[in-house]
Write a structure and sequence with these properties.
- The radius of gyration is 29 Å and the shape is globular.
- The protein is built from seven helices and seven strands; from the N terminus they run H-H-H-E-E-E-H-E-H-E-H-E-H-E.
- The chain has 241 residues and is α/β, with parallel strands linked by helices.
- The longest helix has 56 residues, at 2-57.
- The relative contact order is 0.07.
- It has helices spanning 2-57, 61-67, 69-79, 146-150, 173-177, 199-209, 224-235, and strands at 83-86, 109-113, 135-139, 161-165, 187-191, 214-218, 238-240.
- Helix 2 packs across helix 3 (69-79).
């Protein structure tokens, strides 16, 4: 009797094994297909998001003519995820829908905080013609690059304070040297910019061009004491390299 039951169990296992293998194979194919579809969705979302960034950074001259340069620049910064503060108003504006309306001459940007903002080089043309921007901050901006910093020159008559930090590899020595055009700059803070490969020479050149600017920098890990001492003695700069 035991032998008969064993033989029956063996035959049943033999019958079920192909079915089980077929089910596992079907599940694997379904899993792979689902993963492919999910990847397609992720790619489409990323592409659409990237195109949205390009739309937000595009300069619309007709719109500038309607709302004014200052208002258009504020919309650009806030749509990209940053914030602005306008003259005679203590409140910071993070949402372009809350910027309000009024006479074109009364809307004047005084401070810009582009932390985590998706600003791109093309959008920096919005800065042309701004009258009174005194402070700017670019922190953790994934698209910030040398071409962006080169387009800060139109603010040279008013910009007093600037921070550029944690913005990845796209900001290099070339971009930092472009800041020499900001002749009214009084304070500059630079930090965590791995694209800057020769910080000692770059900062010395920049400080020579901007002798009245107090520069603080954290750009690397070696030579900190020597460079900081040399810079502080010659230019009043606090540098950590």
């Amino acid at each position: 009797m035991a032998a008969l039951m064993k033989n029956a169990a063996t035959r049943m296992t033999t019958i079920l094994r192909p079915c089980t293998c077929a089910m596992v194979s079907h599940r694997n194919k379904t899993f792979k297909r689902d993963n492919i579809e999910k990847q397609k969705v992720r790619t489409k979302i990323w592409v659409d998001y990237d195109m949205l960034h390009k739309v937000f950074n595009k300069v619309d001259t007709a719109h500038i003519g309607r709302v004014g340069q200052e208002r258009a620049a504020a919309e650009w910064i806030t749509r990209c995820g940053g914030a602005v503060r306008i003259q005679d108003v203590e409140e910071w504006f993070y949402n372009y829908n809350n910027l309000g309306t009024g006479p074109l001459g009364k809307f004047v940007i005084e401070e810009i905080d582009a932390s985590w903002a998706d600003v791109q080089a093309e959008g920096f043309d919005h800065l042309d013609g701004l009258k009174a921007v005194r402070t700017m901050k670019f922190s953790s901006c994934p698209y910030l690059q040398d071409a962006c910093l080169e387009r800060l020159a139109p603010l040279s008559h008013s910009l007093h304070s600037l921070e550029i930090s944690h913005c990845g590899q796209l900001v290099t020595d070339r971009g930092i040297l472009a800041l020499q055009e900001l002749k009214q700059l009084q304070r500059l803070h630079l930090a965590d910019l791995p694209g800057v490969k020769d910080p000692e020479v770059t900062l010395q050149t920049l400080q020579s061009a901007l002798p009245s600017c107090f520069i603080t920098a954290e750009l690397g890990e070696t030579g900190a004491d020597q460079t900081a001492q040399m810079a502080s003695q010659s230019h009043g700069t606090d540098v950590i390299l």
